[in-house]
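User: Quick sanity check before I run a bigger batch. Here is a single chain. Can you write out its predicted 3D structure?
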Amino acid sequence: MNIEQFRKAGYQAIDRICDYYYALQDSKFPVLPDVEPGYLRPLLPSSAPESGEDFSQIAEDYQKLIVKGYTHWQHPSFLAYFPAGFSFEGILGDLYASSVSNPGFNWLSSPSCTELESIVLDWASKMLGLSGSFLNASGVGGGCFQNTASEAALVAIIAARTAYKAAHPDTKLEDMRIYTSTQTHSLGLKAGVILGLTVRALEVTREDNFSLRGHTLRSALEEDKKKGLHPFILIATIGTTSSGAVDNIAEIRTVVTDFPDIKIHVDAAWAGMALVCPEFREMCYLEDINAIADSFSTNFHKWGLTNFDACPLWVRDRKYLIDALDITPPFLRTAQGDAGTVIDYRNWHLGLGRRYRSLKLWFVLRGYGVEGFQEHIRKAVDLNKVFVELVSSSDMLSLCAPPSLALSVFRINPKPSTLNQATLPEDALNDLNKLFYGRISVRKDIFLTQTVLNGQFCIRLAIGSAFTQDVHIREAFKAITHEGKLTLEAWDWLLPRGP
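Assistant: Done. Predicted structure follows.
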């Protein structure tokens, strides 16, 4: 393909992308694809072509074969997992970034890539209300894109391990402990597996709204210290995946004053974006995060209007990362790096090469402004309030945890129809709700996900698509209640009968 052929194909690609989003915002196709596992292999050749093909045919095959297999994460009725960020500004940012194909591993490899990242992550840090300690401009702390929140946590744990071993060189790795809660994302356990370190998941309770409390942490730290173990990092969460729970950072702040060697990483992959709105900062413990967090991560590619991937990790002290990750062979040395006058981001994450993600976030931040981000977050929270009101008015559904921003967790919990009718035991309710979710999950017009909260089977509804409106929430509730009624009818039919 030459430049003019690219120009022509590019025009067609933009037209087709626009047509796709017109159809998507009008719900002209379902959320989930109507395909079966393995659908694609019989439709494609078994090996790559020997000679290059005309791009018009490649583009046609994309439309005919690939698009039909997409789950449409930006669909107005996509209410599963957490949202996948999207904006047209983000698409264009990715297009421009791809056009230069720059690995950006140090300043000299492309100065604007490094410098834009340092500036745009300072913009983002200020927008979220993070302490000035986390700014790249501080010369001490700073932010850097990681691939995902899981990798951000892994990097934070590696840095914490290195810092602890430097201060306590005789410590054995098998005696070191990572702390999470039982509601922390699997990133904590996975990091332990990768690094060969033990993870202790601290129990959280329904009574505490699944939040990690200070007394639970203190008890675990004191118990492990008495055993001769070495606590070195806690992963605290703002907005857990299952219920949107927020760990009690204020109480954690009090506890860790007595354990100065322990580092605090705050995983705010989803809910961290709510910090753009001042009214949500107290419930997310921003003041305490700014006081004690050694690192903080959130995903602009979830609730932050930015196309995947865009996951900043901010650290209070960049030396914390560089001491753990700096390996500089002769062929990577530069005069600027040796002089210490630039940031070489290769020393802030696991890889060497890195994607040029700052450009799309720069486009998005400029295109929406702080007010646009606030409007986006508030809209999703308000739509969740609509869903909560509908659930509260139902005699069939109930919430399993307090609503959290744009996330609700619910289940069938039918009210007794008579005073003498017994309520269902928990095991039976779980079986009933598995049947209920089974019915919901085969629908193509809405998409929700399941979870388990301390043994209770639940269904999650998470709002975040920019295309979702009030009507889509009401339609989703209508579909949910329809399946709920059919589930109860089937359940009643399945119950054993008397002689």
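The longest strand covers residues 230-237.

User: Great, the batch can go ahead then.
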